[in-house]
Amino acid sequence: MYGGIDLGGTKIQAAIVDDEHSVLGAARRATPTTGGPSDVAAEMEIALRDAAKAAAVQWVDGNPTLEGVGVGSPGTIEAGNVTSARNLPDWEGSFPLASTLERGLGCRVVVGNDVQVATDAEFKLGAGRPYSSLLGVFWGTGVGGGLILDGKPWTGRGGAGEIGHVVVVLDGARCTCGRRGCMEAYAGRASMEAHVRHLHEERDRKTDLFKLMKQHDHARLTSGIWARALARADKLAIQTLDRAVAALGAGIASVVNVLDVEAVIIGGGLGIRLGHPYAERITEAMQPHLFADSRPPRVHVAALGDLGGAIGAALLVRADA
Questions:
Q1: Is 228:97 a contact under the CB 8 Å cutoff?
Q2: 51 and 184 together in one domain
Q3: Which residues neighbour 286 within 8 Å (Cβ) at sequence distance 6 or greater?
Q4: Could you report the per-residue pLDDT of 132-189, keeping only the tens digit for each?
């Protein structure tokens, strides 16, 4: 059995899978909003241990007996160290995530980019199986991308797939990366929250988003809160999501114009929660920007759902064996 951990900006999803990629047990915990990398790593360890208990994994000396654990993490990954994970609390500099988890779990840990491992999982096991080239777009706290070209993952020199930082508006909104006009500045959930908070508090725009957040005891506007606001026809939520879809359409189309992939897979917390209706809206928003507009790529919602990132992370262990 193999462990997989998907580290996101709002949640940590862990799963235990077998040789046939079946999920035997899963667990989820909230990503800490304060502290630092050590606090995040501690929550990741708890999530993995909870998933192992759910899967009835055998334990030796207080640790689950696994072939290894794969981790999908945001940021730049090098030799198990993670840097530039900007959507995680106080993640300054480089942190040895693999070795920290190895000490805690007593087994080998392999770390990869969160969006790329989720894209790999969709390519091998999910919506991307019919294709030899695809773009994974994971719409959540940020907007991440993963690439499959000619049947193989493409990571470039380590920074490929950063679709959230495709510029969609010159000198536009400030992004969490510090630059201006990035797609993520309009479509990333963290940026969307900052946008509506400014309009609500500084310009007295009415919205139920923050009431819903408090009612459901959340510290942030999660994908579920956005979905509930849409169900209430909250005008500010609708306008903000319209703005996000327009940015996604322009940014994704720009990447498609360069790479001419066969398919686009929409995943991530918001992508999965809002599902096919929003995948269709993104498809429509792409169309005016496509150069080869007579043969657009197929657009699918990630078939593996919330567990795709954790399953993809577990695949890292077998690939690294």
A1: no
A2: no
A3: 249, 250, 252, 253, 256, 296, 299
A4: 999 999 999 999 999 999 999 998 887 789 999 999 999 999 998 899 999 999 999 9
Are 83 and 93 contacting, i.e. CB atoms less than 8 angstroms apart? yes
pLDDT in tens, 56-69: 999 998 899 999 99
Q: 188 and 209 in one domain?
A: yes
Q: Are 9 and 142 in contact (CB under 8 A)?
A: yes
Say if strands 69-73 and 2-7 run parallel, antiparallel, or are unpaired. Answer: parallel
Q: Note down the domain range covering 243.
A: 129-303
Buried b (16+ CB within 10 A) or exposed e, 112-142: bbbbbbbbbbbbebbbbeebebbbbbbbbbb
The verdict on residue 124 lying in a domain is: no
Sign of CA dihedral 110, 140, 304, 63: positive
Q: How far apart are the C-alpha atoms of 207 and 225, rounded to whole Å?
A: 12
Residue 309: phi and psi, rounded to 5, are -65, -40
Residue 217's identity, in one-letter code, is: D
For residues 82 and 215, state if they share a domain.
no
